[in-house]
Amino acid sequence: MKNEKKSAKPVISLQAYTIENLQYTLDKHVSESIPVGFHLKPSVAITDDLYHGKLVLDVSLKIGSESINTENNAESKAILITISAFLMSPTT
User: Fold this and answer.
1) What is the DSSP-derived secondary structure letter of residue 30?
2) CA Rg value for the chain
């Protein structure tokens, strides 16, 4: 018998992705509503045409010291990103 190796196929294939939102701020007033640390919020949906899946990733990262009380608060940095990825239909 021949020892055949099965080729590994990805479970999910992306058709495309878009960056819906990309923000970077040093402004204390803007970053007050963002929680400190790394946060990832995934969600799934179906496109309006009902043919493809859609994966939305909301990512936030805030680092720095909240205790520094300066006007610009240059020690606090925040990044917000929203990415939408469109999944390909599975092939048989």
Assistant:
1) H
2) 20
- Paired with 46 in beta bridges are 53
Global pTM value: 0.67
Q: What backbone torsions phi and psi does residue 63 show, to the nearest 5 degrees?
A: -130, 155
77, 63 Cβ separation under 8 angstroms? yes
Q: How many residues does the chain have?
A: 92
Which residues sit opposite 59 in a β-bridge? 40, 81
Distance CA 16, CA 54 (A): 10
For Cα atoms 58, 41, 66, give the angle at the middle one, nearest 5 degrees: 80
* pLDDT tens by residue, 27-63: 877 788 888 899 999 999 888 887 778 899 999 999 8
